[in-house]
Amino acid sequence: MDSSRQDHDADGTDSAPSAAYRSEVTLDVNGRPHTLLIDHRRTLLDLLREDLDLVGAKKGCDHGQCGACTVLVDGRRVNSCLQLAVALDGRDVLTVEGLTEGDRLHPLQRAFLDRDAFQCGYCTPGQICSAVGVLAEAAAGHPSHATDPAAPPKQPAVLDAAEIRERLSGNLCRCGAYPRIVEAVRDVVP
Is 24 helix (H, G, I), strand (E, B) or coil? Predict the structure, then answer.
């Protein structure tokens, strides 16, 4: 879908922002560069789903509270529903679709399947992207509220069940698949 398409109000009048409210933005999404002319109000989630046809990230609450839209920007977890795309010029975005290598699933994707860590699957892409971020954060030694205060600083965090639950607490699962999600993440902890 073309991000420069014409938008119209219900009465048929042109509601597209003028050129003053659009910018050309280049994003590297899943290893591929994309240059788009986008409205300054466009969220990363809408850009991914509507302009790039990457529908893994879901629009859940649209308030950054459920985590269904979680993607990685420069390796860090973000709620794409809250992130303005124009602010990401030159950044790297990784979605659940970009985790696979050809036909080979990412280890977390495989673990989610093996552990049956989903029911309806709506939150699963956000859960998996968040878990990828959790593994990187823990490996870099970033503490969480569940991290033992006596743990040596800047050392990889130990990802036990409590630590995984705390770090994934921003991702909600309406089906209640939390025990299996924790098991799936523990399966891939180095």
Answer: strand
Cα angle: 132, vertex 83, 163; to 5 degrees: 30
| Rounded Cα gap, residues 174 and 106, in angstroms | 24
Report yes or no: 123 and 168 within 8 Å, Cβ to Cβ.
no
Q: Per DSSP, which regions of 22-174 are E strands?
A: 22-29, 32-39, 70-73, 76-79, 92-94
**CA-closest candidate to residue 135, choices 105, 162, 164:** 164
Two tokens at 181?
A: 């999600």
95 phi and psi angles, rounded to 5 deg: -110, 175
The backbone region for 59, taken as left when phi is positive above 0, alpha when psi lies in -120 to 50, beta otherwise, is beta
Scan for tokens 């990457």, then name that residue: 54
For the chain, which residues score pLDDT lower than 50? 1-13
Stated pTM of the model:
0.88
Residue 17 pLDDT = 64
Which residues, in sequence order, are CB contacts of 45 under 8 Å at separation 6+? Answer: 57, 59, 69, 80, 81, 83
pLDDT at 20 (0 to 100)? 78
CA distance linking residue 72 with residue 92, whole number of Å: 8
Q: For 179, phi and psi rounded to 5 degrees?
A: -60, -40
Angle at 85 between CA 84 and CA 88, to 5 degrees: 105
